[in-house]
Design a protein that fits this description.
The protein has about 350 residues and is an alpha/beta fold. The protein is built from 15 helices and 12 strands. The strands form 2 sheets. The chain has a 6-stranded parallel β-sheet with strand order 2-1-3-4-5-6, sandwiched between helices. Strands 9-8-7-10-11-12 form a 6-stranded parallel β-sheet, with helices on both faces. Strand 3, helix 3 and strand 4 form a beta-alpha-beta unit. About 50% of the residues are buried.
Length: about 350
């Protein structure tokens, strides 16, 4: 089986790197047709004339006929604008879209960058629909996300399948050995999805517990007014994240209250599970597709800082609980989200798209 991974996708973004790694591990010959647009920028979705010009030139470049032969085209994230070029490159072969997010969901409902019902919001929803409908198969990260994308684009259920995000195993693996003192680790962009304000409020509610925040972004102002028990590092190299996870007392997932937050399981949750680090995250339909409260993670109500503080205090004072969550989380990852498991899943989806075509 030969797959062309196609588009302006961010090459080092975990979802893309992990999908390519999984496919290759499953014996698929993955070739890339990539034109860089988003690389080298922490805020990959920043709008402006410069980004628009780079994207337009990239789409023109992608219209050139790709070299070699292949059985299917897989459009990576972010790739909403790449579908016309992908269809041309495919030449009647199936096009699989790995969108990860809806643009309207991200910029309107979650980040609040555009007002609901505005011209920009309607335009983003139209881009979502066109991209999703152009693909022969859409692959979402959870069943909750798949149902949302199918409803958004008016697609039948069989056109939207699920493959969990997983983690890059060349980087993330077992080795959890918590340092003293216990520290709650948050890694990620400071955006509403992650519920940064809930984490900061939990730190105030549990002043005896150290917190370590790694990340930057939209809500930095909240972190700049953090309490004394919160250490903040705006950025560390991706390859250093396992070291952070291995020595943390526990890892923090997402705690936002948006509809998008209810549907997703973020990269950092899978990375923590792969490392065997106890995970605390919001109790959502998306999280429940993988995790069991008290067994593979502690799940707390979204946006509830007091519940989060109490969960962290339980882990900090209960080494048996921490060990149980570490083992249970790692077992859930191995059973449902390892590269071996997801490699078979992605191969199955590609074969399914080829058979239908």
């Amino acid at each position: 089986m030969r797959v062309l991974y196609f588009g302006t996708y961010q090459r080092d973004y975990p979802r893309n790197a992990q999908v390519i790694s999984c496919l290759r591990r499953a014996g698929v010959d993955v070739r890339e047709r990539h034109v860089a647009v988003w690389e080298g920028r922490r805020d990959n979705w920043s709008a402006g004339a410069g980004a628009a010009a780079r994207l337009a030139l990239a789409e023109l470049e992608l219209l050139r006929r790709p070299p070699g032969d292949f059985d299917a085209v897989l459009v990576g994230y972010p790739g909403h604008f790449d579908l016309p070029a992908a269809k041309r490159a495919a030449r009647e072969r199936p096009v699989i879209f790995n969108p990860l997010v809806s643009l309207a969901d991200t910029f309107v409902s979650d980040r609040g960058r555009f007002r609901a019902g505005s011209v920009a919001a309607r335009a983003l929803a139209a881009v979502d629909r066109r991209a999703l409908r152009a693909a022969d198969l859409v692959v979402a990260d959870t069943r909750a996300s798949a149902d949302h994308l199918a409803e958004l684009a008016g697609l039948p259920p069989e056109r939207v399948e699920v493959a969990l995000v997983g983690a890059e195993e060349r980087v993330f693996g077992p080795g959890w050995s918590p340092a003293d003192p216990f520290t709650a680790l948050f890694v990620g962009k400071l955006i509403p999805l992650h519920g940064v304000e809930t984490v900061i409020a939990a730190a105030r509610a549990a002043p005896e517990l150290p917190f370590r925040l790694v990340g930057s972004g939209q809500l930095e102002a909240l972190v700049r007014e953090r309490p004394a028990n919160v250490d903040w590092v705006p950025w560390i190299a991706y390859e250093r994240l396992p070291d952070e996870l291995h020595r943390a007392g526990c890892a923090l997932g997402i705690f936002g209250t948006s509809q998008k937050a209810k549907r997703v399981i973020p990269n950092k949750a899978f990375q923590a599970l792969a490392c065997g680090t106890p995970l605390v995250t919001a109790d959502t339909p998306g999280a429940r597709e993988l995790l069991v409260d008290g067994e593979s993670a502690l799940l707390v109500p979204p946006g509830d800082s007091q519940a989060l503080a109490e969960a962290l205090q339980r882990i900090a004072s209960g080494p048996d609980l921490a060990q149980r969550l570490s083992a249970g989380g790692r077992a859930a990852y191995a059973a449902h989200a390892s590269e071996e498991v997801l490699g078979h899943r992605w191969l199955e989806l590609v074969e399914q798209a080829v058979a239908r075509a």
